Amino acid sequence: MQNTIEREITMKASKERIYEAIANPEYVTQWFPETLEGSYTVGEQPIFGFGDHGKNQICVIAAQPHEYFAYRWVPGASNFLGDVLTVPNTLIEFRIAELADGTCKVTLTESGFADLPTELMEAAYKQNSGGWDFMLDRLEKYIETV
Question: Which residue numbers delimit the Activator of Hsp90 ATPase homologue 1/2-like C-terminal domain (predicted)?
């Protein structure tokens, strides 16, 4: 069982614009959750809404403007509402790096699958592997339109 999902995409946009798309609640809902309830700041536990697919509470762990944003959530658990830090969870990290050609590389990492309950591990990894491919494609398309 793999413990980590990692994806990289390169976009022709500034670090500032990409970071805003990931860390600003007004913009993140344009490509990832449909809704965001609560404060999307470090130490807070806002709720991502995914329409008919339910809601998931997250815990924002870190925000280093224009370079890094991270939160924890409970993968494979549609409708998890509660204190994320008291149950098995994974860490989602976005790293943004400028490249020499004026583009930026975004690296998404989700880690911690090995620490999930055995019955959730494989399904959560498989679901999120495909899910991140889909969502990062949406991020790229969103960045191209703004």
Answer: 12-144
Q: Which contiguous run of DSSP H or E holds residue 8? A: strand 4-11
What are the Cα distances from residue 41, in Å, to 2, 46, 95? 29, 8, 17
77 close to 39: Cβ distance less than 8 angstroms: no
Structural domain count, the chain: 1
Q: How confident is the model at residue 76 (pLDDT cuts 50, 70, 90)?
A: confident
**DSSP H/E element including 65:** none
Residue with token string 């090995």: 114
pLDDT of residue 49 exceeding 80: yes
CATH number at residue 80: 3.30.530.20
Closest CA to 124 of 106, 139, 136, 111: 111
pTM surpassing 0.85? Answer: yes
Q: Is 78 helix (H, G, I), strand (E, B) or coil?
A: coil
Query: Which structural domain range is residue 98 located in?
Result: 4-145
